[in-house]
Each structure stands twice: as structure tokens, then as C-alpha cells.
Specification:
Elements lengths: L1 E2 L4 E2 L4 E2 L2 E4 L5 E6 L2 E4 L7 E5 L2 E5 L36 E5 L3 H13 L3 E5 L10 H6 L7 E4 L9 E4 L1 H12 L7 H34 L6 H21 L13 H10 L13 H10 L3 H8 L13 H11 L9 H6 L1
Parallel strand pairs: 9-10
Antiparallel strand pairs: 1-4, 2-3, 4-5, 5-6, 7-8, 9-11, 11-12
């Protein structure tokens, strides 16, 4: 028997009873606020209903993903139940608009760490999926990642969010994990999230852009751009090395979205003219973060999304080059005007 915190106020309900578990550590019966519901032992997902909302119960240990999902108090291994937003259907509540780049993988890391159900909606950025009228409604920036939460924090209609930083802040705040809400911890994390969005991602992205442009051999003298962004990349790794001095993680003394958002880009050091031994704090941090199962799963994504170049016709290749290269402002889609 696992004794629950007495009368702890959850997001939607009060826990005041006890959980009993079967031999596999999975919930057999739950008593909540004087009401109870029998649950199937050993099942990966169990529900109990207390009108008008539906709640979920997790296991007493880490054998179930639900103990990592939508939880408000953070007792991952103690069997504590926490309130979840009401679930009204069987489908995963988060649609993730994704392509396997560093920016897309940040969000997968967090979703996997949380155990939140999600569905990947492929946005093939080479094909121009990010510029369709439908996706521009979700992300006017015409870039992935983006999410749609059909059961958003605060209730109401489905909510879309674009840009990786706000997405991660939202998901972490909604679930009460990986983003402390005390002022000191919150802004320690927020400053590193902002740094990644304004510095690490853009500068490393431009380095990659100009290196690819130089390799094509038909873009003129790019020596200044290459020197500029190689130097900036070196500076970026130095910033992280300073930030990790005598620290296990980047912010708030804990593993947070600050680490998750910075890892995918930092992990590409070998392709960026960086000698990682020069940045021992970053090297140690990369090794530790890279061993987490959620990180491994996210970073392995990619091959299953690739197209066979032989399957793309010459006309389609020309269409993609015209659509995706040298982008300028997108006009208001005619579909939007007709629907207005």
C-alpha cells in the first residue's frame, strides 16, 4: 500500500485516500475524494470517471507512461496522482508538426520525457509543406515545429503554438515539469531558452547555410560569411562552457527545458569545425544528456522520413527549388480571403 499525501489539492480533484497496487506495481484500485472506481490491474491505461470530467491514474512506479504525463506535483516514482486536463476522446491530444531537424527534435525530447501522447504530422520542408495555406494558419512564420493542443491549458477550443521556445514553455508549464515556476528558477531557465532561440540556433543555422552554399561552388566569394559564422559558432560553444562551469545542468540546478532546447544543436559539434575537447564542460554535459532514453529516441529520428531522390521527378525538383529557395514574404492565401 502506498500512502498518498493527505488532502493534497490536485488540479481538478483532491487526493485523500490510498492506492493499492498489484504485484506488477500497477494500480488496482483508486479512492479519490470519497469516491472510488475499480481499475484493471496490469493494464497500461486505466481510467476512472467522476462526472463531469475524466481523469487518469498512473502506476506506483515507472512502469506506466501515464505517471509521466500531465502531472502537477512531480512525484514520479511514488504513485502520486495528479490532476490532468479533461480528456474527452481516444486520440492523442498533441499534434506535432515536425521534420527531423534540430528544431523539431527539441520538442520530441520534451514530449518523450513527459510521456504525453502525441501524433507527428510530417512537414517536409524540402517539399514546401511549411508554406501551404493550412500550415501558415498554424505557423505564419512558415517554419516547423508547431503544435496543436486539442485540450489546451485553460480549456476551450484547440490552441496552436509555433516556435520551439513557446511550445516547450507551454508544455512544461501545462504538465508542471521541467520548468520551475518560482521566479528565480523560472527566469534562470527562460534566459537560456531565449539564448538558444536568439543565438545558438540562428548562428549555427547560418554557419550551416553558408557552408552548404560554399560547397556548391556557384555563390561567389563567401570567405567573410564563413569566417563570421565559424567564429560565432566557436563563441556559442564558449558561452555554454561558461554557463556549465561547476554546474551539472544549464539552469535552476536541474534537468529542464533549457537543456532539452540546447542539446540538438550542440550535439552537432563534429560537423561545425569545433574541437569539443576545448569545451570540457559542454563535452561532459553532452555525454550525460545524450544517454537519456528520450534524447536517444529523438536524435535517432530521421531515416524514416527521407525521400528516395530517384522518386522525385525533374519537374517536382524544379518546383521545390522555386518554392523553397530565396523565400520572400508570403502573400495572404486566397483561401483565407474567400473564407473571411
Amino acid at each position: 500500500m502506498l500512502e498518498m499525501p493527505k488532502a493534497r489539492q490536485g488540479r481538478y480533484f483532491r487526493i485523500s485516500k490510498t492506492i493499492s497496487t498489484d504485484k506488477q506495481g500497477c494500480t488496482d484500485r483508486v479512492d479519490i475524494a470519497g469516491g472510488s472506481s475499480g481499475l484493471r490491474p496490469g493494464s497500461n491505461e486505466r481510467r476512472f470517471f467522476r462526472a463531469p470530467r475524466i481523469f487518469r491514474a498512473g502506476s506506483a512506479d515507472d512502469c506506466l507512461r501515464w505517471t509521466r504525463y500531465g502531472l502537477e506535483y512531480g512525484y514520479r516514482h511514488t504513485g502520486v496522482l495528479r490532476g490532468l486536463p479533461p480528456r474527452t476522446g481516444e486520440n492523442p491530444m498533441i499534434d506535432l508538426y515536425f521534420w527531423p531537424t534540430g528544431n523539431g527534435k527539441k520538442i520530441v525530447i520534451l514530449l518523450e520525457e513527459l510521456g504525453v501522447p502525441y501524433t507527428i504530422k510530417q512537414i517536409n520542408i524540402g517539399r514546401g509543406d511549411q508554406l501551404t495555406p493550412e500550415f501558415l494558419k498554424i505557423s505564419p512564420n512558415g517554419r516547423m515545429p508547431a503544435i496543436v493542443d486539442d485540450e489546451p491549458m485553460g480549456g476551450g477550443a484547440a490552441m496552436s503554438i509555433f516556435e520551439s521556445g513557446p511550445i516547450m514553455m507551454y508544455l512544461a508549464e501545462k504538465t508542471g515539469r521541467f520548468y520551475p515556476q518560482d521566479p528565480r528558477g523560472k527566469y534562470d531557465v527562460a534566459q537560456w531558452v531565449g539564448w538558444q532561440l536568439a543565438n545558438q540556433g540562428p548562428k549555427l543555422g547560418e554557419q550551416g547555410h553558408f557552408r552548404r552554399a560554399a560547397e556548391s561552388g556557384n555563390n561567389g566569394d563567401l570567405s567573410y560569411a564563413l569566417r563570421r559564422f565559424d567564429n560565432e559558432t566557436h563563441r556559442i560553444f564558449g558561452v555554454m562552457n561558461l554557463g556549465l562551469f561547476n554546474k551539472r545542468y544549464l539552469a535552476a540546478g536541474a534537468y529542464t527545458i533549457a537543456d532539452m532546447i540546447c542539446y540538438p544543436w550542440a550535439s552537432s559539434w563534429a560537423t561545425r569545425k569545433i574541437e569539443i575537447d576545448e569545451f570540457q564542460n559542454v563535452k561532459r554535459w553532452l555525454e550525460e544528456i545524450g544517454e537519456r532514453p528520450a534524447v536517444k529516441k529523438s536524435m535517432a529520428m530521421g531515416p524514416e522520413f527521407r525521400e528516395d531522390p530517384a522518386s522525385i521527378s525533374a519537374d517536382e525538383q524544379a518546383r521545390r527549388r522555386k518554392l523553397v529557395a530565396d523565400q520572400r514574404a508570403q502573400p495572404i492565401p486566397s483561401e483565407w480571403i474567400r473564407a473571411a
